[in-house]
Structure formats: C-alpha cells, structure tokens
Design goal:
about 50% helix, about 450 residues, 17 helices, SPARK, two-stranded antiparallel sheet, mainly alpha, globular, disordered N terminus
Length: about 450
C-alpha cells in the first residue's frame, strides 16, 4: 500500500509539473490559441424566466467555464476525410455546424451533452436534411446514405474541435436520419396532407419563454405528425396498437421538423429547434439518483446534525460528477430527491438544515467549487481566439434548494401559483472581463484526480 501511494503521488506531481511547463511555454510564445486554453470570461446576463414570474431581485453574474483541457490537443484538421457518398449540402449550414462543433467541444461534450451539445447536434442534423430536401424533395435518407452522412458529419465536426464520440454521447445512429416508421417522406406528399401554411405560421418564430407553456408550435407539429402518421392506417395490416401508433407519430414529428427546416433559413430553424428541445429538457431532472439509504440512516431521526449533513452532502457530491444542468432542472432534481427522502420517512427539511443549494446539483467549477447552473433558455458555448472556449454559468450561490411540499407535485414554471426562488442580488456588474490563469490550479487538480480514478 505504501509503494502504491508513493507511485500515485509521484505520478500526480509529474503530471502537474509537465502541465505547468506546457502552459508557461505556450504563454511565453504568445500564441492567441494556446493562450486561450487557460482562460475564461465573466459576463453578466439575466436568464429569461416567464415574464409574469420575473425575479424579485437582481441576478447573480453569469460566468462561462474555463477553456479546453490542456491534456487535449487544441488543433484543427482543415480537410476532414469524407466518404463522397453523402448528398447533404454542408455548405448551406456551415454556421450551425461550427456552433455544433463548439457546443460539443472535445473535453466538455460529455458534461454539456444533456443541455447544450446533444440538442444542438440534433437540431443541426434536422436542418441539414431539411435544407437538402429543397433539392431532393425527400425528407429522409435511406439506410446506406444515412450511415455515410452521419460519419461525414462527425468527421467535419471533429475537424473543428468536436468530440470524436458524439454519436455515442448523444445516442444518435444512422436510423435517426431515416424515415423510421413514418409513412410520409416526400415534401409534396406531406404538403398535400397537412395544412402547411398553418404549420409554418405557428412555428416560423417561437417565443422561447412562452412556447414551453402555450405550446403553439408544439401543438401544430403534433397535429401535423398525427395526420401523416395515420394517413395510411386504413390500408395497413390492422395493427393499430397504441405503442405502435405512438412510435409512428414520434417518427413523423421528425419528418415535420425537417420540413420546417426546409422552409426556414438554417439559423432560424436552429433557434426554433433549440427552443422546442429546451421545453422538454426543463420538464425533468436528468440526473441518476443512487440509493438514498446512507442519507436516510443519518437523517430519518436526526440525533446528530453534523452526521446528517455530512451524509446528504456526500450524497449530493455524487450527483455533481454527472453533468451540468439548467436552473429549472435543478429545481426538478431538488424536488425529486426530496420526494425520495420523504418516501423513506425523512421528514426534516435537510436542504435548509444543511444549506443545500440548487447549484449543488450541478457540476462544480472554479477554485471556490461553485456550482455551475446553465440558463433555462437555450445557450451555446463560444469560441474566441483570445479567451478560448466559454459558456454561461448562473452562480446562484444563495438559493437554498426548496424542500418539496406535501402536494406531491414537482415545481412548474408554467404554474402561476408556483413561487420559484428569486435570484440573489448581483455582486458585480462587470461585462466582458476576461480573467486568465485564475482557475488553472483547480483544473489541473480535477484532471489529475479523474486520470487516476
């Protein structure tokens, strides 16, 4: 055991020294790219909650996270290897492909997958197919082309800095680019079945705040998808089972979304798709909760507050390793965990007792171990030659996680009677301030820790 400990210590020290040498060498060279690797920016931005539920106090400043890991190469391959067998028109959607590459950056993709990377990846694929349908007249790829196109798309994104395992991270496969079980794939056929003018009017421009509650565009998409899904049911084999019908409607929703992408310019389509995806994202907690036995043991009957708080904080620390989440997702996560504890007869408000905040449910960053809550509205990572890769964090340090009530309901931003926690008073109003090197020691510690797990 002593020899193993010594080896581990030597390895940590060696890696730390090498990383520091690489960092200061890069810094001395004055390269705008290498210098950007170790920087992050502070930006003030207010998250747009429902207009009738605006925070009662000023918001805390938002800060983007630090740039890519110094362990990963910060290089681009200017000419990705393509199959030559994909008919999608990449040039028509260059900007959103660049956005996708940044949102799915090598080091961050697994941690931004749920909220930023995968929604953008999915929106980009729908836009690519939709734009190409303007010339092909078809809203889906066959299995062979789907396989080549998905591979080519990933190669292009990787050449611009994206993670090389995006297909697995986002669970997107060639079948996702086909028509699946939807019976309608031709543009002309779809337009002969649905009221395309009504659909386009409902979804040409959505309000990202109110759409999630009013569901104007979502209802129009659902109605159109049901019409084309059920169009040939009378001629089918008679199997009208609900699971089969539901799966077909869901597959047809993708066809409808691709049709919308063909009628909108790529950037507008991307905004619409990201807004729609966030409506679903913010409804649920994406975290996986391990067994709560350890917390119940110490907090069911609180004889020692210190041991109870130690147990709940240790439990929450496991959740923090999973991913970044939005502030509304954090509300859902806090309520879900609270319900689990209440079911196990933990009646005391351990969140208030142990100072568990909403930010404690998201990944922790920075030298102060501050929890990073992403905005509830769609946001993207940003690449800058000077400041590197950054994305917006909402550091709501003072918001104690709300202990669920006895009404057996999760908090909803669409319920006017629901009182969401107000944001804390801002401690700074600085805009665009770039700070370098401040979080480097924490990053190195984090990387060393993860490499030795």
């Amino acid at each position: 055991m002593k020899g193993l400990f010594c080896f581990s210590l030597v390895l940590r020290i060696t890696l730390f020294i090498l990383l520091c040498m690489c960092y200061f060498m890069n810094k001395s060279q004055g390269s705008p790219i290498s210098g950007a690797i170790h920087s992050f920016s502070i930006t003030t931005k207010v998250d747009e909650l429902r207009r009738d539920m605006s925070p009662s106090t000023q918001p805390q400043p938002f800060i983007p996270l630090l740039a890519p890991s110094p362990l990963g190469p910060f290089t681009y391959n200017s000419l990705p290897k393509l199959s030559g067998l994909c008919s999608l028109n990449f040039s028509a959607s260059q900007d959103i492909m660049a956005t996708t590459a940044t949102d799915c950056w090598t080091s961050f993709a697994p941690y931004l997958a749920n909220v930023v990377c995968c929604p953008q990846f999915d929106a980009m694929l729908m836009t690519l197919i939709g734009q190409s349908s303007k010339y092909s007249g078809v809203l889906a790829l066959n299995t062979t082309h789907a396989r080549h196109c998905l591979s080519d798309v990933q190669n292009v994104l990787v050449s611009e800095g994206a993670n090389s395992d995006l297909k697995n991270i986002c669970s997107i496969y060639p079948a996702n680019l086909t028509e699946a079980s939807c019976p309608t794939v031709f543009v002309d056929e779809l337009e002969s079945i649905v009221d395309s003018s009504r659909l386009l009017t409902a979804c040409r421009k959505i309000d990202p705040v109110n759409e999630c509650c009013d569901q104007v565009c979502q209802n129009a998409i659902d109605y159109a998808a049901r019409k084309i899904a059920l169009n040939d049911m009378s001629n089918s084999d008679g199997n009208h089972s609900l699971p089969r019908q539901t799966a077909r409607v869901n597959d047809c929703k993708k066809i409808v979304l691709r049709w919308l992408a063909s009628k909108l310019d790529p950037s507008t389509a991307n905004v619409v798709f990201r807004g729609l995806s966030n409506c679903n994202l913010n409804k649920v907690c994406p975290l996986v909760f391990p067994n709560v036995t350890s917390v119940v043991k110490e907090c069911k009957v609180i004889s020692n507050q210190t041991t109870c708080c130690k147990a709940i904080k240790s439990y929450v620390s496991y959740l923090q390793d999973q991913s970044f989440i939005t502030n509304l997702q954090a509300l859902k996560c806090a309520a879900s965990l609270g319900k689990e504890l209440q079911k196990a007869n933990v009646s005391s408000n351990v969140y208030n007792l142990c100072h568990i905040s909403l930010k404690d449910f998201s990944l922790q960053v920075g030298s102060q171990e501050s929890g990073c809550l992403l905005p509830s509205l769609p946001s993207d990572a940003v690449f800058d030659k000077t400041s590197g890769i950054g994305f917006i964090c909402d550091l709501n340090d003072n918001i104690v996680a709300p202990w669920p009530s006895t009404l057996n309901q999760l908090p909803s931003s669409c319920n006017r009677s629901t009182e969401l926690p107000s944001l804390p008073t801002a401690i700074s109003s600085q805009n665009g301030l770039f700070i370098s090197n401040l979080v480097l020691p924490h990053l190195l510690t984090l990387l060393l820790h993860k490499s030795l797990l």
